[in-house]
Write a structure and sequence with these properties.
elongated; about 170 residues; mainly alpha; single chain
Length: about 170
């Protein structure tokens, strides 16, 4: 285990804090330390000093970076795209998804409210369908039970006779 001096830790934390949009990976690589070590220092510093952590998702690029990656790889062959993805730490599947997102973003979409209302209507219909199917299953069971009771009643009369005839 490598012991880092306090001054070095503070300098690295200042770099991270001074550049909130920057990548911890880049800063760690530049300093020659493991990214997990720098992240640990950063989280500990934020926890100790009551600093609100920025909520970043792993391996997610901002919209502009995604668009730039799509533009940069548009003219590349598949082998070149694979090499680009390896050097930038992204997956080719992600790049394809980003390309599709860019294309769909250029299409004229219906108003978001209309889309949201359609989703709400769909969910309501699905809920109503589930409740009707549940009620139908319950009624089918009740009908099957009633039919079974009628058959048993007929069989009992056939075996023991009709109780009204004996009187």
């Amino acid at each position: 285990m490598v012991a880092y001096r306090k001054e070095f830790k503070e300098a690295m934390l200042q770099k991270v804090l001074a550049n909130p949009t920057g990548s911890v990976l880049d800063i760690a690589a530049e300093a020659g330390i493991p990214p997990s070590t720098l992240r640990t220092w950063y989280y500990k510093y934020c926890h100790d000093n009551g600093v609100q952590l920025a909520r970043k998702k792993k391996k997610r690029k901002q919209a502009e970076n995604k668009f730039n990656a799509v533009v940069e790889t548009a003219h590349m062959s598949e082998a070149e795209v694979s090499e680009y993805c390896r050097t930038h730490g992204i997956y080719p599947e992600d790049l394809k998804q980003w390309r599709n997102d860019c294309i769909s973003g250029c299409r004229s979409n219906p108003d978001k409210k209309v889309v949201d209302q359609a989703k709400i209507d769909k969910k309501l219909l699905e809920k109503k369908t589930r409740s009707l199917e549940k009620e139908l299953r319950r009624k089918d069971k009740a009908l099957a039970e009633a039919a079974a009771l009628l058959i048993l009643k007929k069989k009992a009369r056939a075996i023991w006779g009709d109780p009204e005839e004996e009187e």
